[in-house]
Write a structure and sequence with these properties.
269 residues, alpha/beta, Rossmann fold, 7 helices
Length: 269
């Protein structure tokens, strides 16, 4: 979601208005006696999924219906109009607040975070807004997400970067925690910045996400992680505790209106 995309991992169902299988948008009642699950209680999971579904439905209500792609958003960032195609196909096909907030932060704080000629990796790139902005600011960008997210991600990057950017952004498949050294070997895949926006919410891949962050931000690599996230759930705060145990973390800004926090971090030695 922009970043952990669909559950930003592959076995979570596509959000729809009416469901009966317990996924976001469900109408099923909560169990009377919640069982403890990996990232909290079953009641907490139901509450978190309802909140995510509510954010999706808020977007749905303003879209013009079409066959497959159900909406687009336009932004003016880094001196260019950016037009993003969205869909309800997955969480990763929507624009989330963290991506907008970090995009605007990068535009307005170029001296603090200078992306010109820097190698930048985005994990959980989703619709590609953040990768597009980084490209427009002069970075050499690799945008990653699940294989099923890549067609729309590639479309958005191509339409918004052609003849505009210093470097052509690249798109690669990445499943958090899987085959990291094989697909992104430490010896050849080095980045100045890793970007992540709204990759943390109530899904079952938080350990894999943290392992992926650590893989790309190895000690002595000089890599800086910029992570923006809307604070939604208790699981967000639990992840932040684990994150801070692995990374030296600085809060760059907190947007109270959107409840988005932007962090700068380097891995602990």
């Amino acid at each position: 979601m922009e970043t952990s995309s669909t559950a930003k991992q592959s076995n979570q169902e596509v959000p729809k208005k009416e469901r009966t299988d317990g996924e976001p948008g469900e109408n099923r009642e909560e169990e009377e006696t919640p069982k403890v699950v990996e990232n909290g209680t079953a009641g907490e999971v139901v509450s978190d999924r309802k909140q995510m579904a509510g954010e999706v439905l808020d977007r749905w209500n303003v879209w013009e219906p079409s066959v497959y792609y159900l909406g687009k958003e336009s932004f003016f960032i880094a001196g260019h109009e950016i037009c993003i195609r969205e869909s309800l196909d997955s969480y990763g096909a929507l624009i989330w607040p963290g991506a907008v907030a970090l995009s605007q932060f990068l535009e307005n704080n170029r001296q603090q975070v200078n992306l010109l000629d820097k190698a930048v990796l985005e994990i959980g790139a989703g619709t590609g807004l953040l990768s597009i902005v980084a490209s427009l600011l002069g970075a050499w960008v690799t945008a990653t997400d699940l294989p099923e997210i890549l067609p729309n991600l590639t479309f958005n990057l191509s339409r918004n970067s052609k003849s505009r950017c210093r470097y052509t952004p690249q798109v690669r498949a990445l499943t958090w925690g899987q085959d990291l050294e094989r697909d992104f070997p430490c010896t050849s895949c080095r980045y100045d910045y890793v970007l992540a926006a709204d990759v943390v919410y109530h899904h079952n891949y938080l350990e894999e996400l943290l392992a992926t962050m650590r893989h790309f931000c190895r000690p002595a690599s000089g890599t800086t992680l910029l992570w923006a996230n809307k604070v939604r759930f208790q699981s967000d705060l639990r992840f932040k505790e684990s994150f801070e145990s692995c990374f030296n973390t600085t809060l760059l800004t907190e947007l109270k209106e959107g409840e988005v926090r932007i962090y700068k971090a380097t891995v602990r030695e």
